[in-house]
Every structure is written in structure tokens, then in C-alpha cells.
Amino acid sequence: xxxxxxxxxxxxxxxxxxxxxxxxxxxxxxxxxxxxxxxxxxxxxxxxxxxxxxxxxxxxxxxxxxxxxxxxxxxxxxxxxxxxxxxxxxxxxxxxxxxxxxxxxxxxxxxxxxxxxxxxxxxxxxxxxxxxxxxxxxxxxxxxxxxxxxxxxxxxxxxxxxxxxxxxxxxxxxxxxxxxxxxxxxxxxxxxxxxxxxxxxxxxxxxxxxxxxxxxxxxxxxxxxxxxxxxxxxxxxxxxxxxxxxxxxxxxxxxxxxxxxxxxxxxxxxxxxxxxxxxxxxxxxxxxxxxxxxxxxxxxxxxxxxxxxxxxxxxxxxxxxxxxxxxxxxxxxxxxxxxxxxxxxxxxxxxxxxxxxxxxxxxxxxxxxxxxxxxxxxxxxxxx
Length: 384
Fold this sequence. Notes:
The protein has helices at 18-32, 67-84, 94-107, 124-130, 144-153, 183-192, 214-228, 245-257, 273-279, 295-302, 315-318, 333-344, 348-365, 368-383, and strands spanning 6-10, 36-41, 55-59, 88-91, 110-115, 138-141, 163-166, 200-205, 233-238, 264-267, 282-285, 306-310, 325-328.
């Protein structure tokens, strides 16, 4: 049976996001189980890491929302499906999902979608555009939060008999393993970032965008400084502005206004995220809107780091409050500052215990092998 499974995944770009790494992981898992694996994408940084002997890569402008290109992509996908005798088409974003929907309807192939986000909508047209993600034979939600969001907002499209389930995203627990990082590499990164390890380091990973809560974080750090009366730690805000230069300037100004420039550093990129976690003591995910899954919280726990995150979205599922990390009321600067003070004043033994419990939590629920096996199992059921 396995040898007859030929899966074509379609994703706008293969970057370093959760949807993209999930696509990459599945693509390389399938050949190990005697399946054929294909990816259609427009480009992205992860392409250079794809094993071309195992995964067939096809480039198409599937990132475009242009209706003409969506139609043209669907025609080309029909050719790809028929030429390679694809059995399952798996779309991971809305624009390419429309192309996949047309192509699978005309070729009679099975269609799978993964709902990676809430896809906010402001009107009926946008909701209709989003609805393509629930028009498949198998709908995968990346968390219980996303599952509930789909049920609450797209129930009209779920009346037909469809498979609809949760498969938690997974991370590579071998890569995000604190025991694999060398002291010499840690020291090099500390030198590069010009940080003295005599103080604790708080890491705040995530692209610079308002809903990720970096403004809230800076305000909370200011409150902590006032409360403690001194700069008790370094803060590294790690992430690209992705063209949002005005927002980054706003964050820098806010840092200057609170006289936190000696305490807060802005780092654009780190090619070894596991190492970035390793040199940190505390990780914060201060999002003011729900994270669909909350990859930062899972990666931090896998690295045995104390995670502080807002109590909305996927973080409620990935963090066991007070056991593997701390949750605070989303958008509440006072609540966040109190959690930061609690974390930085904890004894080392308690911090280590939380870290150990965090890694156990990730190994049990959120490892990439479990995600890949569950997805592969659903592919097989779909064809039976």
C-alpha cells in the first residue's frame, strides 16, 4: 500500500515558519516509509536543505493571490498530478489551496488541507476565500484552538461528511536538545551579540509585528526595572521586521524613552535557534493575539528553558502552567512584569526542574516523529 502513496504538498514559500518546517519534515518522512514525495513551492530558504534524491521539487508561483495565476497554477497542477500519478494533494495555505481544489476535483484525487492559522476575516468575501481550507477530504487543525476556531466560524462548510481532526505540530527534539550544544559555540554567540553572561538572559524570538507583543514586553521590562531598582538581566528581541521598518523604529524609540538601551538588544537573525535558546535563561512569547500553535513555547521547553507566554491560543495547550512554564493574562503589562520578576528571582534548582518537565512534555506530545507518523497514518486511511 505504502508504495502506491504519492503525496504532493503545495505551499507558497519554504521559509522557517511552522507550516513550512512541517511540510519539509513530512516530505522527508514519506520516502523513509516507501512513499513518493513531491513539493510545489515558489521558493524559500529551506529549499537548499531538501534532499533532491528523496523529494521532487517543482517551482510554481503558488504564493500569488492573483486569480489568473491561481487558475494557471491549477492547470499546471493537473498536469503534474497526471504525469506523476499523484494520489494525495496536501495544501498548506489558501491561495494554493484554491489551485489544488480545482486540480483534485478534475483529476479525482484526494485533497488534504492543514489549517495553520485563524485566517482573520472582515467580511463575507474574505471568509469565502478562507473557506477553501475546509473544502478538502481531510482537514487537519494544528491545535485544539484552531479546531475550535474552524467549528465556530466555518460550520456551514462542515455539513458534508468530512474527516476533521487535530494533529499537533511537532519539532525536531534532536535539534532542540540542550545536550548537543558546545560551550565554545555558546561563547562565540555571546561575543557576537556582545552580551555578558554574568546576568540572566531573556530571549524573545519572533518576527517584529505588533500582534507578537514586543511593545507590551518593553513596557513590562520597564516596570520590572522600576520594581527591582536595577537592570537584573539582558533582553534579546530576536526577529526580523520583514519590511516593517516603521514598527521596528517604534520599538527602538520606546526602548530609548524608557532608558533601556543598555538592557535590550535587537538581533535580526540567528541561524542556529537552538543555540540562541541554549545561551538564554528565560524565554518569553508575549503575543497579544492568539498563536495558532506557539512554536516558540515548544522549542523553549524542548531546550529545557523556562517559558513565559500569554494565556491565549496554542500556548494554553503546549504549556502546563506553573509546571513547564508560566502563563500570564494576554495584553496585561502588569501580569507579565510580575511573571518576569517571579522567574528572575527563582532559585536555580526550581528553574532546572521546570526545564526538565518542559522537555518531557514536548517529547511526549510535540515531537516531529509523532506529527509525521500521525499524518502518514491519515494519508493511508484516506486511500483505503
